[in-house]
């Protein structure tokens, strides 16, 4: 086991007290996935982590970060006692960042944070030892965990920063202290907590408050709120822009979607770039170009970064494509499934539907002679007072002309159901669980299926039900 911390070091960083000397190889908040030698952090959320400390130690945890001696434990157990566990974790994250010589990139945005973080991981790992956040570790405990896990000898670190409410991003950015801070885009997400899109933009721009001296801000152009982002960036450091806008430093010239691949032509500060992303979607092209700009700001070779992007595939639930075979003997008897069931807002819905519209179903292999583009859409959450209008507005998106049928989940999706023309209006269900028993009747061999919705809509249940119709086969390249 590589030693990440000792309990003595943790005690110094957290102003706590270690009961025993121990070596720590990782950080965990979940006894279900804890590894031998991990520090178990007894956070209090839906349940009190102190109730699970004994179990964590019995499963091999190296020590536990606690604010009291838990039931079933004693001073004879390896504990680090602190005044407050969350504050202790945050102190440990700051200490991890302080001791590291890594160049740090922080990423935020309404859409594409996690995908862009994973693009950066893929690109940077070929140019040095790279550490990046797991899954969507982007909140008040996810960011300090990521920093606390940062190896002291890492060359690069990629930190994802998210938010649900005003005031969340700045303290996390100051904790991460990035050399490069990137905003993917600003869209109508979490509007229930903000007055308008400009309020969201100001919150996203707060990531620049943590920028290291001499750092670089990577900002999208072509948005309604781009001026807000650029002005905040100029106050913090050097500004590098990207997007389809003519004035962008890194400009999308052409984006072509060919099956599973997006081919991108770009102008990178006067240098022609041609690269591909192994997933269909204009949003992936834009995020990839922003990632190249961020890497170049760190001094990495942008041409090499563009090549390495060809190895990236989306994380599960964020646009991954797979083939589900109904008959393993006959590869034509199946569906192509795009799992994008993790989050949704009007902007990400639009790009996902554009991707679906570019796909080619297979005719003549199913019950229905005509292969179809099928959208299964869960409701979009946290959109505020205009949520009904935003759901109905999906019917007016240009890609809808190429979608054969739309099935819907959730009360808010009733607005879309009523707005769709009868020919495209599929089945609507109150909950995803209600739809699960119907999935075999909603799809046919030859279809291309998109499943997308906010995580709270639970359309991931529909994805799992579709997989169970046959044998999933990954199409990742």
Automatic annotation (TrEMBL):
Q: Where does ATP bind?
A: 109-115
Q: Which UniProt keywords apply?
A: ATP-binding, Cell cycle, Cell division, Cell shape, Cell wall biogenesis/degradation, Cytoplasm, Ligase, Nucleotide-binding, Peptidoglycan synthesis
The record's listing under PANTHER family reads:
UDP-N-ACETYLMURAMOYL-TRIPEPTIDE--D-ALANYL-D-ALANINE LIGASE (PTHR43024:SF1)
Q: Where in the cell is it found?
A: Cytoplasm
What is the gene called? murF
Q: What does this protein do?
A: Involved in cell wall formation. Catalyzes the final step in the synthesis of UDP-N-acetylmuramoyl-pentapeptide, the precursor of murein.
Task: Tell me the GO molecular function terms.
Answer: ligase activity
Instruction: Indicate what this protein is called per its UniProt record.
Output: UDP-N-acetylmuramoyl-tripeptide--D-alanyl-D-alanine ligase
